[in-house]
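Note to self: the last two entries modelled the partners one at a time, which told us nothing about the interface. This time every component goes in together.
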Amino acid sequence: KQEVTQIPAALSVPEGENLVLNCSFTDSAIYNLQWFRQDPGKGLTSLLLIQSSQREQTSGRLNASLDKSSGRSTLYIAASQPGDSATYLCAVRGRAAGNKLTFGGGTRVLVKP
Amino acid sequence: GAVVSQHPSWVICKSGTSVKIECRSLDFQATTMFWYRQFPKQSLMLMATSNEGSKATYEQGVEKDKFLINHASLTLSTLTVTSAHPEDSSFYICSARTGATLTNYGYTFGSGTRLTVV
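The predicted structure of the combined assembly is written out below.
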């Protein structure tokens, strides 16, 4: 059974610092991995989708890497801003699970002005 | 990009009544939608997979008679919480898969519904 873990569970940084969020998964047989952002009381906003054949994806200040063989993905957010404060979730679509996503527990990020 | 609209964003109901939550794909057809439940400070828990024109598939431990799912069209899935009780109070989120290929698709989520049963 696929398990997804996100470390750390919470992170607080001063504005301007780079953020590094980690996601690990136990079964490397995946179709893709997706990073989401969730603001309090809101739904999920998709940030980046990395296919299993890709090593990384970039969008603006966001960069996500994927090392499928070691079961790891890292989300980098450059030059953090207070508006980046949110919970970040990674989710894996594994081959064994068909079209279901397996979510990590999330990392709550606070960027202090 | 693909947009999933969820309504209402919040609802308060009395114990014993039923509440319907709608999830619509606005600019694409969604043959499959998903319903999640989220408790405070926790991640999402998949409740069921909603398939257009057929019965929903429920995850283990989720009462199908309690949480009725209807996916009557390619753009609308509904979740009805029947005979709601305070323990059903939670944040409910729907999602739909998006993308052009059969294997490389991602997911788009609705904005969620905060249900409070009093």
